[in-house]
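During the no-cost extension, the postdoctoral fellow (Dr. R.K.) reprocessed legacy sequence entries with the updated structure-token encoder. One reprocessed record is reproduced below for audit purposes.
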Amino acid sequence: MQVHKQVRDRNPLFYAKFAVWFMENGTVRDHKVAFLQTLFDAKEPELREVAWMLTQDMPLELVYRMVDKQYPRTMRSAVINKLANEEGMTMQFHILRAKKQLKRLVKRMHIPTSKSENENLQAIGKELFSKTPELRAVFKQLLETQDPEEITKLLRKSRLPAYIAVSSIKVRNPKVMRALIDNMSPSELLQSLNMLGRLKVLEPNLQVVMDKIQRAINDKRIQAMRVHNIRKYLDAELVPPVIFDLLSKVTVEKVRKAGKLKGKTSIHIDLSGSMEVAIAVARELAITLALASETPPTIYTASTTPNEVKPRVYNSQALEDAFRLLRPAGGTPLGAGVALMNRKNEECDTIILITDEGENTPPFFMDEYNKMMWHPQIIIVRIPTSEQPSLSDNLQRAKIPYETVTVEKVDQYSLDQIVRLVGKSPFDTVVEIMSQDLPQRPPELRVAEYWKKTK
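Re-encoded structure tokens follow.
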């Protein structure tokens, strides 16, 4: 938080535009919360207004974390508007699954519920602060009834999130399960495919399931690599092959909608001892770049037995197969892959080197990099170990620009962070940030207590 405040106070305009850019492009949730807290805490009303607007697109679980004991009136107004206009199914989920956080938020900010004419705020008051909650009564009804018609009626009327309702349903015939699937969002459905396969309800409802998966293409909250990872862990004995094929198509379509990366990238993997994480990061990064780039990445091992890793074709399964025989062992000649490129007169725009930087064996990276006719961008993906970062020290002394990302484990946040650096200099990123427009609250949302009749 202290760093956020220092940047905000030194350059308020840049900080506000950076916040807008990060909410759209960033993946680290802690930073999103810090941006909003820092903007709401600013003395400039313009910054608080930016925070007000950005709050409306924040997931509620982050709003809970944003609110501290002390809060400005602008934050209270933003939270009330967020709750008043939240989508009905999402509000039900939070009433049922985040009861403590939601209740604490409403009490801490003194948000009126029963006195409001807003449906969401009334529902919060009725479900969390009264003795006759209706949503929880539905659970009891679902547990007690074994009539499929009655169960179906309850599901359609209550619109309970499917993964909550399923635990209370004793009768699971095709009609009941169809109502359950109808209640699912595309995201919920993707997470539930193995479960639905075990219940043997995918085949009878295949068209509905496929239509919802297709809708995931336009859902900004569902990232391409998330769809890819869901597909990877599906059970082929439970899920029909046609769904596997559709998930592959959805992944490709989502990448295309996001725009293809231009230029050629070369991934170099440190295969010295204890670099299992480097292999895992390289594999997932190669899959991501193969989907996201106009030109598939080349892949080299920086090892005592250097090799170009060549998949049969550039798709997820073939890339996973190509990495299957890689093992960490031996010394650390970080320039070995670049040496192979030099022998073939191969050029690229970006080199991504995944390593702990403990270079101790020739060919050395700096020597081979200096032999290249065209000096590409360097991104060091550092795997933390006890080794000292000698490579970045050498690059710094030689005044060779580079970017560093530290990765302790393979996750979507780390991969996104790396991919966003490809093909961009720090200046390019700053220009992109400064091109952002600051959002402004519409005049009608400034009227006192307007939210009471919202929705």
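The CA atoms of residues 94 and 102 lie 7 Å apart. The mean pLDDT is 86. The remaining legacy entries will be reprocessed before the final report is submitted.
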